[in-house]
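P.,

For your records, the input lines for the assembly:
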Amino acid sequence: MDKHGNKTVIGAGATFTGKITNARVIEVHGKVNADLTAEKVTIGEAGHFDGAIRADLVVVSGHYEGKMQAGSVWATATASISGKLHYETLQMDRGAALNCHIVYNWAAKNAVAAQTDKDDMDLPLPKPSDKAKNGVESTSPKEGA
Amino acid sequence: MSAKSYEQMASFHEDTTYILGDLIMEGALDGGDHPIVVDGQFNGDITATDVIIREQGKVTGTVKAKTAVINGHFNGNLICESLNVTATGIVEGEVQANALSIDLGAEVIGSISRVNAKSK
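Structure tokens returned:
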């Protein structure tokens, strides 16, 4: 029906505050303050996203702040990310600004399935032995959100 | 709104906000000076220059706009300069509009009045 398919877009200049559920592909060029579960999230250069994201793929070209849990994360040259980032694969372009906790988490997929309703984004992180291997013990203590 | 501007709006713009598919949004959405097209479900407040609720769109809450086109389902308070409810449109609630057109087949249930102060 639409040339751009079923992609939801928050246009430049638009501001949204609230909750987004049942999303598949979403593109943010405006300001969004929300918690979001989706398949693919794109934050455009002008976009600001504040809140939790769980997604298979997140492409960040704008500003992100919050707890992100994603299969693949691509931070482009104009990206600026703060908060917490759980990922399975991460690509970061030269110029991207990451100012956050970054946790490689291969258990993310199971965790997403198990926890979709849980507010707290913190993952049931892998067994201690795995943690030790990965050196990411420090993430849990301060879960301020 | 002229048919032409509707066509323009229907084509993709980065500035335009589209709520499409099965997604459900709850909260407050301000489109600024740009249009908002709803083809999904939205609960809450929408403010924008132009608001289009497409056939699959369902909005519950308050909508403030200059022009509003309802092809889908709206329930709540609607305040706009000009409103067009097309043949597939369903509007329930309180409508305030200065220019109003309701196509044959549309369902409008509720009260209709004029806007006193010019609202966005």
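Two observations worth noting. Strands of chain B lie at 17-19, 24-30, 36-38, 41-53, 58-70, 73-85, 90-102, 107-113. Residues 3-113 of chain B form one domain.

Regards
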